[in-house]
Amino acid sequence: MGNGPRGARLNVTIGFPPGANEDTPVFVISVAAELSGLHAQTLRSYDRLGLVSPGRTPAGGRRYSARDIALLREVQRLSQEEGVNLAGVKRIIELENEVDALRDKVQGLMDELTAAYASVEQTAAQVHASYRRDLVPVQQETALVVWKPDSRRR
Fold first, then answer.
1. pTM above threshold 0.85
2. How many angstroms separate the first and last alpha carbons of the chain?
3. Closest CA to 64 of 32, 36, 38
């Protein structure tokens, strides 16, 4: 996980229901507002702007995950402490998500490469194991002999 919004962690310990994790949308908007330190109307506004995308119930109610709450805190920090406007915050979030996705892709490629190296090593070991042991390599030498007939004998 990166240090960006996608990889952000909550500073508080939250107990999740069985089978849930930090990506599971479980918090209603009033609880998410309290946990993030923002007003519920601000959360709705951030949702409309695409800064955070909470899960939805079948009836359309918003449900925020722990990761969403960490993202809300990061949006607030960037806009209040760093002075970044909301369009800039949105672009920062997009870029950080892209970096995280690229890191995941690189890790996947590294895993594939490691597996390929292991496969090559295994195949080479099998080939070496299949060599016939009753054959002994003999070093072949060649020599060049120049014959000069003795011209005195005729």
1. no
2. 95
3. 32
